[in-house]
Design brief:
This protein is α+β, with helices and mostly antiparallel strands. It has a domain at 28-175 and 226-264: Clam (outer membrane lipoprotein receptor (LolB), chain A), CATH 2.50.20. Helices cover 23% and strands 36% of the residues. A hairpin with a 2-residue loop joins strand 1 (44-55) and strand 2 (58-69). The longest helix is centred in the N-terminal third of the chain and has 20 residues, at 2-21.
């Protein structure tokens, strides 16, 4: 009996010691904090993006190349199907986006990035390219969800898009829609921003996908209670930046973005955001 007791206490002691030496559990809060810090430190960004977006009840697929300078904001966007190029420079006097269509009718346009034409059948504007908006979206989700960080679960490590990542999952089964009465001079985007909910989902639910002006005062809208019902975030373990992000509502997946060829804070050439750059076709 003494012999058995001795070995029981001995192995129990080893187990306790082993546990004390084990690395602490990975915290979603810590990972998200590191992601915010990484996003905040981005000055320049190069990446390719594969986007899947639900437009009404069908899905659109696109692959694009993006170059982005955060301050002052400058953007170069090229569809890898070579159908469109977009150039935006916030330092230019007109502060509009230059768009070149490489398919019929082969037009060159100067458009407001937040105007109807550029936002038609799009979830976001060119101002939401890069990682800044992702950080804001996660922050909005936590802010709107009273349980906040508790609804994030760490799912371990996984390989995604060729990167070793930390996988975070967010889910709140209380996601639903409630009534909202439009006030004077409100747009769908303003309402979505003030309520910390997804702009596209609010528009879709209320048949406002291509309505970007003021809404009629007194109109009753159905608005989501949360930014999304579920999200999957793959954070690359060294850069601590998302390489894949998928968001879900009550109907399932409504948008997914996969990032590859990521380069952070690599200096741009002087003509990187110049329409006369030989690599561009404006």
């Amino acid at each position: 009996m003494r012999f058995r007791s001795f070995f029981f206490l001995f192995f129990t002691g080893l187990l306790v010691a082993f546990r004390s030496l084990s690395p602490p559990a990975v915290s979603p809060e810590k990972l998200l904090g590191q992601m915010y810090d990484s996003i905040k430190n981005i000055r320049t960004l190069r990446q390719n993006v594969h986007a899947i977006e639900r437009i009404e009840k069908t899905y659109s697929n696109s692959v694009s190349e993006i170059k982005l300078q955060t301050r002052p904001e400058k953007v170069y966007f090229r569809g890898l199907s070579k159908d469109v190029e977009i150039l935006y420079d916030s330092e230019k006097p007109e502060v509009k986006a230059l768009i070149k269509l490489h398919t019929f009718p082969y037009l060159m346009l100067n458009l407001d990035p937040r105007g109807n034409l550029m936002r038609k059948n799009q979830h976001y504007t060119i101002h939401e390219l890069g990682y800044g908006f992702i950080g804001k979206s996660v922050a909005l989700t936590i802010n709107k969800d009273r349980d906040g960080i508790k609804n994030f679960t760490y799912r371990g490590k996984a390989v995604k898009n060729g990167y070793t990542c930390h996988l975070l999952e967010y889910e709140n089964t209380n996601y639903t829609y409630v009534n909202y009465t439009v006030r004077d001079k409100e747009t769908a985007s303003v309402i979505a921003y003030e309520l910390c909910v997804n702009d596209y989902l609010l528009r879709y639910k209320n048949n406002l996908l291509n309505d970007f002006g003021y809404l009629k005062k007194g109109t009753v809208l159905k608005v989501p209670t949360l930014y999304c019902k579920k999200a999957m975030v793959f954070l690359e373990e060294k850069m601590m930046l998302p390489v894949s992000l998928s968001l879900y509502d009550d109907m399932g997946l409504f948008e997914s973005y996969d990032y590859t060829h990521i380069q952070i804070n690599k200096p741009f050439q002087a003509d990187e955001f110049d329409r006369d750059n030989d690599a561009y076709d404006f």
